[in-house]
Design goal:
This protein is mainly α and 164 residues long. It has one domain. It is 52% helix and 0% strand. The protein has 6 helices and no strands. Helix 1 runs antiparallel to helix 2 and helix 4 runs parallel beside helix 6. It starts with a helix and ends in a 40-residue tail after the last helix.
């Protein structure tokens, strides 16, 4: 495994959407990194047991070779989808990702299973603060400002001289 392999895997695993970068461009770059890994014959997104775990979820006990291959492909696609979601703009999609993680705790797996589902979910997401990029508002910064008012000391009236 040479330098190109390490860089390709790092780029694939650590791709983050930059602030104000379009969702379409981010997903396109992610897919390009995935294709580079495949061209370098790097198996990304799959572990040895991933396909077997997918078959268990589907409750298939005696799978055929076709079912094993389909389960492996499905597991890899789900891995890609979750990586894209985790790399999405944290400022813009933080609330969505937190809600999905909380759903997992409640045994509701609402994570998208394919790259196209992730693209659809992220493109349709509207957070509670509105605006294209929240205008700097979030739960911790909801746009409220405070002004400090101090009492001014009364100045003594100055004596003016009249000219006669």
């Amino acid at each position: 495994m040479g330098y190109n392999h390490v860089v390709a895997v790092r780029n694939y695993n650590h791709k983050q959407q930059e602030r104000f970068k379009s969702l379409q461009e981010y997903i396109y770059q992610f897919v390009v990194y995935r294709n580079v890994c495949e061209q370098l014959s790097i198996k990304v997104g799959a572990s040895e047991n991933r396909g077997a775990n997918m078959l268990k979820q589907l409750k298939i006990t005696n799978p055929t070779e076709q079912q094993k291959d389909d389960a492996e492909k499905k597991a890899i696609e789900e891995h890609h989808a979750i990586l894209i979601l985790q790399g999405a703009d944290k400022y813009k999609y933080r609330r969505l990702i937190e809600d999905m993680k909380n759903d997992v705790i409640l045994k509701k797996n609402s994570f998208p299973k394919t790259v196209s589902e992730v693209s659809h979910v992220l493109s349709k997401w509207r957070n509670c603060h509105g605006g294209k990029y929240n205008n700097g508002k979030s739960e911790s910064n909801d746009g409220i400002a405070f002004k400090t008012v101090t009492e001014k000391k009364k100045k003594k009236p100055t004596k003016t001289t009249r000219i006669k």
